[in-house]
Write a structure and sequence with these properties.
Length: 300
């Protein structure tokens, strides 16, 4: 159980959050996160946009890639409108464009491609990193709890509530992430993730949740060499674009390893890559993202 909310109820609410409502032909509405505060998590907008696109594709086609640009920060509270353009429907592939808007202002553009499953030439040049399994690692929520206890009165009640908010997706990280480490380190991170309770046998919701989780830890990887963190107020930043490729079906309620690295940062931006593996060591998805990353100016 995650704090006072049963895990099953938490995950059911999460599935509901990512299940968009059809308003009219090719128009959908995404719910706001219950009790959410401040800026909307980018992974939520990506997942809802993907769900809207998936709802318009038939013939057994499944999403194999998406490319998104964040235009403005979304706000928790108002619903998000998703408008779909059906750009292409072929025998093997389909393409959809999605514009996510909030109160009439576009906040994200996303293009998704879908393919009828087929066999093909196979090779994999991406071995899973040799890291401890999730059973050997401390849950992320335990680390957050210790951090809050150590901070004491130095953080506000609102900050405390945001850090300790129950989460439907559990993380277990190998080594400290940017928010828990102030020492410069190699720009690589490894985290296991899965939902805290079982999910329905619906491949679309599993893809949506993997898309949601693909925004975890990613931009923070480019902050590691600098020993800085958004959570500590060292940086100002936002995701600029996000690309995700689905290589094989995977369940988001079973442990998946997210391995991220950042080959470059500069010019006020950080570039990050990610690979997602199942516990059999199979590559199930690849990710790339660039984000704005600026050192916060200290007030005089």
């Amino acid at each position: 159980m995650t704090d006072s909310i049963p895990d099953e109820k938490l995950v059911a609410g999460f599935v509901k959050l990512l299940t968009v409502d059809k308003a009219s032909e090719d128009q959908f509405v995404g719910r706001p996160q219950k009790g959410g505060m401040g800026r909307m998590f980018g992974g939520q907008v990506i997942a809802q946009a993907l769900q809207a696109a998936q709802a318009t594709v038939a013939d057994g086609k499944a999403a194999h890639s998406l490319h998104a640009y964040f235009l403005r920060g979304g706000e928790e509270g108002p619903p998000v409108d998703y408008s779909i353009a059906r750009d292409f429907d072929g025998r093997s592939f389909s393409n959809r464009r999605v514009v996510a808007s909030q109160e009439g202002r576009p906040i994200l553009n996303l293009t998704a491609s879908f393919q009828t499953p087929e066999d093909g030439l196979e090779h994999v040049e991406a071995p899973m990193p040799e890291v401890p399994g999730p059973e050997e690692l401390v849950p992320d929520m335990d680390l957050r709890r210790k951090m809050v206890e150590k901070a004491g009165d130095r953080i506000s009640e609102a900050q405390r509530a945001a850090v300790m908010r129950p989460r439907p997706v559990e993380l277990r990280s190998v080594g400290p992430l940017h928010w828990s480490n102030s020492q410069p380190s190699e720009p690589r991170a490894h985290s296991w993730f899965r939902t805290v309770a079982p999910l329905p046998d619906d491949s679309a919701i599993h893809r949506a949740i993997i898309a949601y989780a693909s925004d975890f830890t990613l931009l923070g990887t480019s902050a590691l060499p600098h020993g800085l963190s958004w959570m500590r107020g060292d940086l100002v930043g936002a995701s600029l674009d996000h690309a995700l490729w689905f290589h094989r079906e995977a369940r988001a309620d079973e442990w998946l390893l997210y391995a991220t690295d950042s080959p470059w940062s500069g010019a006020g931006r950080g570039f990050n890559r990610g690979q997602i593996f199942n516990q059999n060591g199979e590559l199930v998805a690849s990710v790339a993202q660039e984000g704005m990353m600026r050192k916060r100016r200290q007030s005089k």
